[in-house]
Specification:
With 412 residues, this protein is of the alpha/beta class. The protein is built from 13 helices and 13 strands. The strands form 3 sheets. An 8-stranded mixed β-sheet has the order 1-4-3-2-5-10-7-11, sandwiched between helices. Strands 6-13-12 form a 3-stranded mixed β-sheet, with helices on one face. The protein has a two-stranded antiparallel ribbon with strand order 8-9. Bound molecules: 2-acetamido-2-deoxy-beta-D-glucopyranose (5 copies). It is a single-pass type II membrane protein.
Length: 412
């Protein structure tokens, strides 16, 4: 037995020390981490990449080609050129067409589950027309306001979730609902299109009326499926940047959560000063951080990702149920996302872009994107202490908000 351990130890040590071939121009086995900083963009991840490490994984192969292209050591001039040019799209496109020409990649593609193939078939497309959008400056009721809101709520919802939207409008998403204050927040709902032929009503028409009435609908012409959720992030960043929306912070979350807006706004005002003082506002993201998660390999799961599609663990990311980041970061994510291939799981994708910006989400224990741990909820002050909790019905949301306002007023 002892001998066996000894042997295993040697094998492991040899693997760790031995397999890396020396670097030569002909044999670019691994790549040095970059050190160039340009326009606030960080060097690529601080690792040595082994080309053969993820040979079978479809997404890794696609992205490796793009990351190589922007590696500041291999291509020092690439990062110096402006980041706003359209070359990113062509690099991403080219890496896709080159990679998918390879025999092994094609084989891998055909072995992927059908819904992932469907994702791959559309993963290059990122421009979808806007069907409906708010008329005010970045969100509701912006027309007669000169000052940008402190916080813009960007809420992922679906056409049929009218009840959820209504609960949010009347409670935590109400623009400037903090007593006596005008406009500390505004909101926008992010939607794709649902297949609702069999309902017998014209949903598009209803949504159009809703948009006219509330002015808080942002809808694109793509199918609202789970694997298309990443598009909502990417297209929202673009919309936010193109409009030059000046909201200091963005909250992005689902439509089945409760947010304690008064507490959140107080927290953000507190953070703002420090963040501006130490110039880290451009990197700021806070939420429930999930570190070094492994992709879900259970094939019945909604989050299932086969090894052949993605290998390795995920970068640390903030749970997508509810997360806050700065408007400056939203603009940087808009640029960075053009050099990261779309990934079917939205919050992981945000983490992948963050890692390449050398920015990392901050963990805050009051963001409960997976609900209360154990019986914590039953304690009388639990709701008072949190900033956010997933997952709540529209009725619960309204009730919790009443409670939160009362508590906020009495503890002021
Ligand atoms: C990179 O830029 C430098 C100076 O800016 C130039 O001398 C060099 O030729 C460029 N290299 C490539 C490969 O374009
Ligand atoms: C927003 O909240 C802060 C702090 O609670 C307050 O000072 C400010 O007047 C509020 N209103 C606006 C429009 O910023
Ligand atoms: C539903 O309404 C929209 C907008 O009014 C219209 O363009 C569309 O043709 C209608 N669809 C159906 C199936 O009637
Ligand atoms: C995403 O939306 C596009 C456009 O409607 C659609 O063609 C595609 O099948 C959708 N992708 C997934 C994975 O559902
Ligand atoms: C800047 O302030 C934030 C918020 O307090 C803090 O988390 C971060 O560590 C600070 N960064 C530096 C570089 O001091």
């Amino acid at each position: 037995m002892l001998l066996l351990f000894f042997h295993a130890g040697i094998v492991v040590c040899m693997r760790m020390a031995g397999v890396k071939a020396p670097w030569t121009p002909e044999n670019p086995q691994f790549e040095a981490p970059g050190t160039l900083k340009n326009r606030g963009f960080a060097p690529l991840p601080q690792v040595f990449w082994r080309n053969d490490l993820h040979k079978e994984a479809f997404w890794n192969q696609l992205q490796l080609a793009v990351d190589r292209h922007f590696n500041p050591i291999l291509h020092p001039n690439m990062t110096k050129k402006g980041l706003r040019n359209s070359r990113f799209e062509s690099v991403v496109r080219q890496s896709f067409s080159e990679a998918t020409k390879q025999e092994n990649m094609r084989k891998t593609f055909h072995s992927l589950p059908h819904h992932i193939q469907r994702f791959v078939n559309h993963m290059l497309r990122r421009s979808y027309p806007i069907i409906l959008q708010p008329d005010g400056e970045c969100g509701t009721q912006g027309k007669d306001e000169k000052k940008p809101p402190l916080l813009l709520f960007a809420i992922k919802t679906a056409e049929l979730n009218f009840k959820n939207r209504q609960a949010i409008r009347q409670s935590w998403g109400k623009a400037g609902w903090v007593a006596g204050q005008k406009r500390n927040s505004s909101r926008v709902f992010l939607l794709g299109k649902e297949n609702s032929d069999d309902l017998g009503v014209n949903i598009s028409q209803l949504l159009k009326m809703e948009s006219k009435h509330y002015g808080d609908i942002l809808q694109w012409d793509f199918e609202d499926t789970f694997f298309n959720l990443t598009l909502k992030d990417v297209l929202f960043w673009r919309w936010f940047s193109d409009l030059h929306c000046r909201a200091v912070f963005v909250f992005k979350g689902d439509d089945d959560i409760f947010v304690n807006t008064p507490r959140l706004i107080t927290y953000l005002w507190d953070q703002l000063e420090t963040l501006q003082a130490n110039k880290s506002l451009k990197d700021f993201m806070v939420g429930e951080v999930i570190g070094a998660a492994e992709p879900d390999r259970a094939d019945k799961s909604k989050y299932f990702i086969p090894e052949r599609f993605y290998s390795g663990s995920y970068p640390s990311y903030a749970g997508g149920g509810g997360v806050v980041y700065s408007g400056l970061l939203a603009q940087r994510l808009n640029l960075m996302s053009r050099r990261v291939h779309l990934y079917p799981i939205d919050d992981v994708y945000v983490g992948m872009c963050m890692m390449r910006l050398n920015a990392f989400p901050v963990h805050h224990p009051a963001f409960l994107t997976f609900d209360f741990p154990g019986k914590e909820e039953k304690r009388p002050c639990s709701y008072h202490k949190i900033l956010l909790v997933h997952k709540r019905s529209p009725e619960q949301i309204v009730r919790l908000c009443l409670y939160a306002v009362v508590v906020f007023i009495f503890t002021k």
